[in-house]
Design goal:
Peripla_BP_I, elongated, Rossmann fold, 12 helices, sugar transport, transport, MglB-like_PBP1, alpha/beta, 343 residues
Length: 343
């Protein structure tokens, strides 16, 4: 009987320890804060890398409630409501429409939730209207300036690109989404920087390709049919449209038998780095997806845990409550640097 009682006591103790261990495990899981994240559309080339960077950084640190807004602001608004109702401790929002930031802030205010906007920048006044709102992205003008410098330097180094020898760079420009701060700034400052470098320019075409490679190809097809070799430079607000332009140029016989067309983009996504190595693009500008995603998560995790957004990080905020991740010009000469950013 005593032996039976001893065995029973041992079994009870083992069960109790197992139960305590299970509760400890449950507690550690529950301790991970939930961060609600929306991406304006998953199939955007650049944003897919930002999303991956956020997911990679979140491993073991937070639970992510990820959402594809499918380029619909109404869908994104509903997703924000759902994330709030599910108990998210912070929001990380890649806006579909930057003008919708005030509506998102109102939702966050009512729930007393911090919000980190990223990649698409709200108006400074809107961001300032809520003490728990911040932004992670870039200085929009910087990409245009760096792209313009890259183009100007390459043009001067390759006088044969001026096919008719008139001393004027005749260009076409694939613009991103109209009204998007990055699209407007990249368009303005890239051309202004080229002119400031002492190069005369002629705009043959400027139309929106909506950041999309298919639209970029369609526009380039039409421009080649209309202008042919009168085009001397293809300027693209992003690499997605640049890839579409290269596809169109390939189909028209460029990049074979010495027939070349200079194409420059922005983002430095891996597919474009391969095109640079193949000699089919002059260069691009690194829009650092890894660090944009990393900074977004760092700030979101801090505020979800009730800390200062910059606590324990190397990021800094400017006067507009924004973390600015710098751009870098990329050509064949520093291709390894850009490749490292996507590892």
């Amino acid at each position: 009987m005593k032996k039976f009682t001893a065995i029973l006591l041992i079994l009870v103790m083992m069960f109790s320890l197992s139960a305590c261990g299970a509760k400890a495990d449950e507690g550690s899981s529950d301790a991970l804060p939930t961060i609600g994240v929306t991406i304006y559309k998953y199939d955007d080339n650049f944003m897919s890398f930002v999303r991956r960077a956020i997911e990679t950084k979140a491993e073991g640190k937070a639970t992510l409630e990820m959402n594809d807004s499918q380029n619909s602001q109404a869908t994104q608004n509903d997703q924000v409501d759902t994330m709030i109702s599910k108990g998210a401790k912070a929001l990380a929002i890649n806006l579909v429409d930057p003008q919708a930031a005030s509506a998102i802030i109102e939702k966050a205010k009512k729930a007393d939730l911090p919000v980190i906007f990223f990649n698409k920048e709200p108006e400074t006044s809107v961001l300032a209207s809520y003490d728990k709102a911040w932004y992670v992205g870039t200085a929009s003008a910087e990409a245009g300036v760096i792209q313009g410098e890259l183009i100007a330097n390459a043009w001067k180094a390759n006088p044969e690109w001026d096919r008719n020898g008139d001393g004027v760079m005749s260009y076409v420009l694939l613009k991103g989404e109209p009204g998007h701060p990055d699209a407007e700034a990249r368009t303005k400052y890239s051309v202004e920087t080229i002119v400031e470098a002492g190069i005369q320019v002629e705009e043959l075409e400027l139309q929106t390709g909506m950041w999309d490679s298919v639209k970029g190809k369609e526009l380039m097809d039409a421009w080649i049919a209309k202008h042919g070799d009168a085009i001397e430079m293809v300027i693209c607000n992003n690499d997605g449209m640049a890839l579409g332009a290269v596809q169109s140029l390939n189909a028209s016989g460029y990049f074979d038998d010495g027939k070349f067309m200079p194409v420059v983009g922005v983002d430095a996504i891996p597919d474009v780095l391969e095109q640079i190595k193949a000699g089919k693009m002059v260069g691009t500008v690194l829009n650092d997806a890894k660090n944009q995603g990393g900074a977004t998560f760092d700030l979101a995790l801090n505020v979800a845990n009730g800390k200062d957004p910059l606590d324990g990080t190397e990021w800094t905020l400017d006067e507009g409550k924004a973390v600015r991740v710098p751009y870098v010009a990329v050509t064949i000469d520093n291709i390894e640097f850009a490749e490292e950013a996507y590892k």
